[in-house]
Amino acid sequence: xxxxxxxxxxxxxxxxxxxxxxxxxxxxxxxxxxxxxxxxxxxxxxxxxxxxxxxxxxxxxxxxxxxxxxxxxxxxxxxxxxxxxxxxxxxxxxxxxxxxxxxxxxxxxxxxxxxxxxxxxxxxxxxxxxxxxxxxxxxxxxxxxxxxxxxxxxxxxxxxxxxxxxxxxxxxxxxxxxxxxxxxxxxxxxxxxxxxxxxxxxxxxxxxxxxxxxxxxxxxxxxxxxxxxxxxxxxxxxxxxxxxxxxxxxxxxxxxxxxxxxxxxxxxxxxxxxxxxxxxxxxxxxxxxxxxxxxxxxxxxxxxxxxxxxxxxxxxxxxxxxxxxxxxxxxxxxxxxxxxxxxxxxxxxxxxxxxxxxxxxxxxxxxxxxxxxxxxxxxxxxxxxxxxxxxxxxxxxxxxxxxxxxxxxxxxxxxxxxxxxxxxxxxxxxxxxxxxxxxxxxxxxxxxxxxxxxxxxxxxxxxxxxxxxxxxxxxxxxxxxxxxxxxxxxxxxxxxxxxxxxxxxxxxxxxxxxxxxxxxxxxxxxxxxxxxxxxxxxxxxxxxxxxxxxxxxxxxxxxxxxxxxxxxxxxxxxxxxxxxxxxxxxxxxxxxxxxxxxxxxxxxxxxxxxxxxxxxxxxxxxxxxxxxxxxxxxxxxxxxxxxxxxxxxxxxxxxxx
Length: 657
Fold this sequence. Notes:
The protein has 657 residues and is an all-alpha fold.
């Protein structure tokens, strides 16, 4: 992949001013900027809490203030290119300070003249056009620094497409638009940069990123890991199953695949390696499990909030629909892990060497308070933004119950700063995606792309879904998950709806496929992060995680052909779930060539037939799939006793807990 990676922040520019080495205390300018970053980040988090839980603001005003702070943080933290030193007075420092000043001016212009701007819609002043052009350029530069050249290039290509529309091929031709129309649409309305993507980032996403930061600081992550280990450690390959369950727990409240890898992988990957998993397998298990965190309610990834807005569906309804497929994904990963452990002969740990679940819960019961508050608020039809606010406040309050988790004032400020910095990438991505959304809407490209997908797939749903999956993989090479979902659902979502797929199911399919860049080579962001923790070969880890995460590719097809999996009567949901679950187990066993014991090629063919039939709708296919699956069970059952004896837990020299 030829992408130029986003530049990493200069350390002295992003850490607390107190962390500057004593010998560099003469760098007064650097210390001052570090203070500014700290104050700005804390102020942004407090502003988001204020607007989430206390006083609502006009959408355009709230989003503009949010973006202004994000742009300032971006230009203060991220250098323009690798090697641009900002630890002393230089031209690059002057440039970034100038960009900060210009960012503040464009936001101030929008806020100060908001009523006049609303009144003169379509009758723009030259100053309006100039501010619009400058604002869009600032977003493009921030996108280039934070996300990379590919995302910035895609945004620029959509701008060029809108301007030179009359010169495009017949398939995507349009009349073309002036710079005035483009810039004012993107910057002075809620149809572009300040549209739904940034609105979601500035409300729901930020508050839940902050929630994750509070959980991380107070030690909630360790609680989830210990609880998972107490539940799974006695089984074959227990540490790997711990990684899956712990990542499910953490992902359900953090919604970040790479963040999950770093947070839980630091504990689970060494545990897996100690019981005999190869380094690349240990990293792959963590990457595949962490990717599922963005699919697991109650929070999921940022795309789930966007889905609620795009489909005009309550977030609680999205959570209900997403729950069963997410559980199936984790069961699939668990089965891959189980089969791998059986093949490697990895035994479980004796029960007396594991942490006691009751003790873990007893010592950390207070961490359940914010989760209960969050779920209760969502089920009471409180807005997700207000629910996130309550979760943050309850996490801070609950931290005082135990001395070990209690936050002092400095830790509180550090957590607020961390939350703002963690939100920079998502907010910049959503602002940049607003450029794409605005130009697609302005030019009508979405409808044309939809027709193209229908033509290429010849109206066959499975081909259309596979085309969307391939497109998501290409987009994932240069876009974050959230941005990939936004672009793909706008371009390809209508095609699925035209084929009869319900709107929420169509969006869920695209949302699932947008996750594949986390585990699919050559990008595999979560896999590469896990490889770094495991000390493994990145590409080998990526290909292994790609195998373990096959549920990401299979389950969306099942969603399209068996929508009762997500939205039917309780009986329909349960029966469809059971059929799909057995199909996924058969599919995992087929790929691993292991079920109750090593599978012969004939047994592999039976498992493949069972999986194919159980994924396809219809009672006859379900019966045929079950017959093939039972045939494999009966064929391998006589060999099960020897395998069970071989895998019996044995005392270890040292406990892993």
